[in-house]
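Notes, p. 3: input format for complexes.
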Amino acid sequence: MKNFIHSICCIGAGYVGGPTMAVIADRCPGVQVTVVDLNAERIAAWNDPDLSKLPVYEPGLDAVVGRARGRNLHFSTAVEEAIAAADLVFISVNTPTKTKGLGAGQASDLKWVEASARKVAKAARGHTIVVEKSTLPVRTAAVIQEILGAAAAGDAAESQPAKTFAVLSNPEFLAEGTAIGDLEDPDRVLIGGDDPAAIAALASIYGQWVPAARILITNLWSSELSKLTANAFLAQRISSINSIAAFCEATGADVREVAKAIGADSRIGPKFLQAGPGFGGSCFQKDILNLVYLCRHYGLEEVAAYWEQVVTLNTWQQHRIARLVITKLFGTVSSKRIGLLGFAFKADTNDTRESPAIRICRDLLEEGAILQILDPKVSEGQMARDLGQEPGGVSPPGSGDGQWQRVPDVQQAAAGADALLLLTEWEQFATIDWPAVVAVMRQPAWLFDARAKADASAARAAGLNVWTVGEG
Ligand code: UDX
Ligand code: UDX
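Output follows (472 residues plus uridine-5'-diphosphate-xylopyranose):
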């Protein structure tokens, strides 16, 4: 049994695998870390000499990669080679919600995890610690163990040199946009497993920079379930405050004052009480739906319905905002220009997975709006994939079908528009030159601020009507 790790392989060079391995390599110069991915384009981008071209935008990531890359951090498409050389393999591939078949719309699709386990089973040499980094339904480790166990038994039968495996769960709690800080100074690192030597080996990696008291050891199933539960609790707070935001708007209360008042209660605390267009990102919806699916599977219908409502409320909040815009613009947005400020699911990331902007834009396009979308980090191609239509559109103005285009600045988002709709809290939206913006809009004009980010009094002073989420 090895207690010291010389070489790590991570399968999956995405938003989790990339930054996590970069920080491990940075903090453990004596360990070789190779991140592999099937996607050759993505690997090429991780290897780009120009650090502003990394495939994941994350503040501070360029500096970390700059320090470690080529020294003990490598990005490669040679998956089997990297597995063979590794003492420890992280599986950090995506686990999207299934779109068809059993559990469609709720269960996680584990085909990439299973494929990764099979690759490890085939390519590994000697003793290998296999670590689940992806968020997985509770008891997935059993599947991985079974696949690896079959490979080990097969080798023994063919009298090949014996392979042995230990499986650990080590979910990642980083949030996008703050990933480097979250990884360098985590609230906790969670390691689940039942093999003390493997646990000690993984803990010694994190122990290079994380205080021992923050490294929590649990059994495998508790670790898997803790990740789903953490995300469900966080998402639940957002749906709770968004439900109260709607109530504030109806009654003259102000949700920020309410959030401050209740957040001052140390039992509740101030975090995750920011009302907005609803949560997005790759985790919250997927993980809650997965929790719902698992609870139903175990016959816990009331528990499933309870958590499902968190997602239902989130979707409702997004449709509510689209409807509100339409209502304020005299009941129709057909052929009206609307400037969208922000498309990413939150600030400081180029990720658009489950972004509230997608559903809101689709609703407005269906009503025939012409959208002028500004986001500093999201590409036009990504917007086209998310909106399911190319920019410019095929339909002539006035035909009732909406169109969209990506614009480079606030002035062009506002040009000829009846409204600006702020959906992502990019810092630049706090300091908009409102008189200049209002000058190019069609009157009467609106600012709809779904993040309470803009300077509402300056916008009002410049002549705009302003709606701010949660303000009655
Ligand atoms: C992560 C976690 O892994 C997921 O479980 C969690 O719920 C959300 O965050 P993330 O890193 O954000 O996923 O996903 P993504 O950016 O899509 O990266 C996954 C990478 O794995 C992709 O680059 C994909 O090409 C790669 N992959 C997938 C492989 O290399 N091999 C496979 O078999 C499947
Ligand atoms: C989340 C978890 O925070 C992280 O621990 C887990 O590992 C992955 O999922 P992430 O999705 O990257 O991370 O971002 P997060 O900062 O949690 O935000 C999720 C969504 O909630 C965003 O759309 C954000 O705008 C929204 N949000 C967050 C609110 O609307 N209000 C808040 O108060 C906080």
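Residues 11-17, 37-39, 42, 92-95, 112, 115-116, 134-135, 282-283 surround uridine-5'-diphosphate-xylopyranose (ligand 1) (CB under 6 Å).
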